[in-house]
Amino acid sequence: MSTSVCKNFVSTVIISCCLTLLSCNNGDKETPKEQKEQSAETNQENTSSKALTAGPFTVLKLDKQALIDLFNNTGANAKKILIQFSDDGSSQFMQAVAFGANKNNVYQNVLKTLTPASTNSWDTTGLKIMGNNELTKKQIKTLIGGTINATNAKDLYFYPIKNSNNQIYFIVSTSLVPFTTTGPKVMLTYPTGGEDSKPSPPAPPCAVCE
C-alpha cells in the first residue's frame, strides 16, 4: 500500500471517530428547551404538593349524621363543637375538622371532617388569624329547631368570613346558598338567620351551652 493511500485511510478513520464522538455527546446533552420544560414540571410538582397556610376557603358542610355522632357518641359532657382548620395538601381549599367538647373545651374522642359544599372558593386579603371556632349545642338546637337526634338533625353549612380583628370565623346555616359572581371575583352570599361561630381564643367557656 502506498504512503499516500495510508495517509488517506488514517485521516478517514480519525474523522469518522471524531464524528461518532460528537454524535454521542449531542445525543446525551439536553437542549435548553428540554431543560426549561423539566424545570417547569419540577416547579409545578413542588407547588402542587405544598400545604395551604391561610386560604383560599369555601363553604364547608358537616352532614347530619356526623352532627349526631359528635354529641351522641362523645359522652354526656359534649356541650359544643370545636372547628379547627386543617390541610393535608390534597385539597385546593382550606379544610376543617370538628370535635365534640365540654364546656371547658376538653375534647372528646370523635373527630369529623367537614367537606367542601362548593367548587368555588372565597378568600380575603391582609392578615388572617385562624384559630379554633366554637358552636354551642344551644346554637345548633336553634338552627335545627330542636334536640340533636335523627328526627331533627340537618346538614350544617359553614360560610367563612373575617371579623374586624382579622379572625376567620363562620356563619353557620342549614341552607346552602349558591355563590354569586360579580365580574371576575367570586363573592360569597351569606344566608340569613344563621348562627355565628365564636373564634377561640379569645372566646371564654360558654356561659349557656345548651
What is the gyration radius calculated from CA atoms? Answer: 31 Å
Helix-strand category: alpha+beta
Round the mean pLDDT to the nearest integer and report it.
Answer: 76
Quaternary organisation:
single chain
How would you characterize the largest beta sheet? 9 strands, antiparallel
What distance separates the N and C termini?
A: 111 Å
Structural account:
There is one protein chain. With 210 residues, the protein is α+β, with helices and mostly antiparallel strands. The protein folds into two domains: 3-48; 60-200, no CATH class. It is 29% helix and 27% strand. It contains four helices and eleven strands. The protein has helices spanning 3-28, 32-48, 64-72, 137-144; strands at 60-62, 80-86, 95-101, 107-116, 132-136, 156-162, 168-173, 180-182, 185-187, 195-196, 198-200. The chain has a nine-stranded antiparallel sheet. The protein is globular and about 40 Å long. The N and C termini lie far apart (111 Å). Residues 2-15, 17-24 and 32-49 have low confidence and may be disordered.
